[in-house]
Amino acid sequence: MKTAVIIPCYKVREQILSVLSKIGKEIDLIVVVDDKCPQNSGKFVQENCTDQRVSVIFNSENRGVGGAVKSGFEYAKTKGVDIFVKLDGDGQMPPHLIKKIINPILKKEADYVKGNRFYNLESLRKMPAMRILGNSLLSLVNKFVNGYWDIMDPTNGFIAIHKNALALLPLEKIENRYFFESDMLFRLSTVKAVVIDVPMQAYYADEKSNLSISQTAFTFPLKYINRFFKRIFYNYFLRDFNVATLEMLSGSISLLFGIFMTAFFWIRSSSTGIVATTGQVTIASLPILIGFILLLMALHIDIISVPKKPLITQDFDE
Fold it and tell me: What are phi and psi of 7, to 5 degrees?
């Protein structure tokens, strides 16, 4: 299979040549995407890199890491590429691991492979404590949002994807900036692509992140809520209708009814001073219990429904 490495470049002038020099001969094409870099990283590569596999493309405006990767995807598609690997230009992702990350695709075991910095507990010592906490919470949230309950470290940008899976994704709808990796997982879940993790160590040097924590804290929750309800609608109402669908519907109705009755009896009791009867408490609490159990049953079905048959084994029209 022909393999391309996509490298989004923004303020990585000091690291990019070192990253390029470490990419092995197993790679057929290297696409450097200058995302309107103020350091002119793309031009710097053109002037100083002699590797014939390297092609440099320039975005006319800064599109963010996701937008730069998508530009690289579109360019590599025109070159007949089968496997697309995304590698950061700041040196946090060791190029020697490319062989490891594309191996499951070569074996037709997965459509999308990503790094996982949480697999080796010893390597976590190199990760700042706040990053461990933040990534752990994001991993839990992403399991609900994208339905891939068997993976961790969802924001890890060291990824590889096969052309069959990429062809099914609406690239124009995928987020351009730092929500890119999470949005990719959501889109992959809607086409039932097989996603697996590859263990890797955490690497941190003197690079500076362009991620705004305050902006992320405000925008990410809304995006996660949006993707969660979209996935549930796509997978359990639009493209399929199964037992989990019925459990979600009946469980939600029962839970909401119980909450409504609890609020009703509590407000009436507060205004009149009359204590709610045993029957009223039962009417309010039993639907909540039943609804919670039904939703747990639906969650169980969702967990065991993680895609297992790779799209790579199926034929798709170009």
Answer: -120, 105
Cross-strand bridge partners of residue 240: none
Q: Nearest 5°: CA angle at 57, between 52 and 59?
A: 165
Phi, then psi, of 56 in degrees rounded to 5: -110, 125
Per CATH, domain 3-211 is 3.90.550.10: yes
261-318 residue pLDDT tens: 999 999 988 888 888 888 888 999 999 999 999 999 999 999 999 999 999 877 655 4
Q: What six digits make up the tokens of 25? A: 């001969």
Going across the sheet that includes 3-9, the strands are: 54-58, 29-34, 3-9, 83-86, 159-162, 112-116, 195-199
49 pLDDT tier (thresholds 50, 70, 90): very high
**CA 199/CA 184 separation, integer angstroms:** 19
CA-angle at 52, arms to 47 and 54, nearest 5°: 70
pLDDT for 79-138, tens place per residue?
999 999 999 998 888 899 999 999 999 999 999 999 998 887 776 776 777 777 877 888
Q: Smallest Cα–Cα separation from 115: which of 126, 104, 131, 128?
A: 104
- Token pair for 36: 């309107």
- Radius of gyration over every alpha carbon of the chain, rounded to an integer in angstroms: 23
Q: Which is more confident, 61 or 211?
A: 61
**Are the CB atoms for 202 and 118 separated by under 8 Å?**
no
Instruction: Quote the tokens at residue 226.
Output: 């949006």
Beta strands in the chain (DSSP E): 3-9, 29-34, 54-58, 83-86, 112-116, 159-162, 195-199
Give the amino acid at 107.
K
Query: Residue 244: how many CA atoms within 13 Å on its side-chain side?
Result: 15
